[in-house]
Amino acid sequence: MKRQPIAPLVAALAFGALVAACSPTGSSPVADSGADPAGEMHVPGNYRDSYQYLGTWAVAADKAPGSQQLHIVYASPGAAAAHRATGHFPDGTTLVKEVFEATTGPMTTGTVSHSDKLKGWFVMVKDSKNSHPGNKLWGDGWGWSWFDADKPTKTSSTDYKTDCQTCHLPAKANDWTYVEGYPVLRK
């Protein structure tokens, strides 16, 4: 009985592992858009790995030093570069804002606030074409939704005009986004 060389088998197995690792179901992150074709929104499952960090907002505590909340914002791949080039987020851009309760205390550098418990996420998906008329979470060029920390796939928002947009009125001239807080968008 003649023995077959093992090298071709090893090479075939290695190639198969490489193909699997590079496929969407492998370990390489693939950007999730934050909304399905029907307009149902969710928190993108892999945004921390595949989205770009834009910046952090610190919400000052009312009666104590430090912050009561930290808002950490991410944008889908390519959105920051497109905004730098055109001054606008292109259709399909997804913005994810993590909202954390903050803890403040003394450290060697002084009084410091850091993120503590996740309260939830605010998700916006750019849609200048009004692709989901009749859906009360889509309008004025965006899809808008709040998600509680324990429900990343089920929004608690029912109408963007009352649940989301009121906080964004001061940013209406900037397409409803507070771009001044995102240094990565500056040229």
User: pLDDT average, as an integer?
Assistant: 86
Uncertain segments of ≥5 residues (pLDDT<50)?
3-29
Oligomeric state of the chains in view: single chain
Distance between the termini: 70 Å
Derived from helix and strand composition plus strand pairing, the structural class reads alpha+beta
Shape: globular
* Number of distinct helices: 4
Residues in helix, %: 10-25%
Element-level helix/strand string? HHEEHEEEEH
Which characteristics define this entry?
disordered N terminus; six-stranded antiparallel beta sheet
Strand-helix topology:
Blueprint: H1 7-22, H2 47-50, E1 52-60, E2 67-75, H3 79-86, E3 94-107, E4 110-126, E5 138-139, E6 142-148, H4 160-163
Structure description:
This protein is of the alpha+beta class and 187 residues long. The chain is built from four helices and six strands. Strands 1-2-3-4-6-5 form a six-stranded antiparallel sheet. β3 and β4 form a beta hairpin.
Short structural description:
This protein has 187 residues and is α+β, with helices and mostly antiparallel strands.
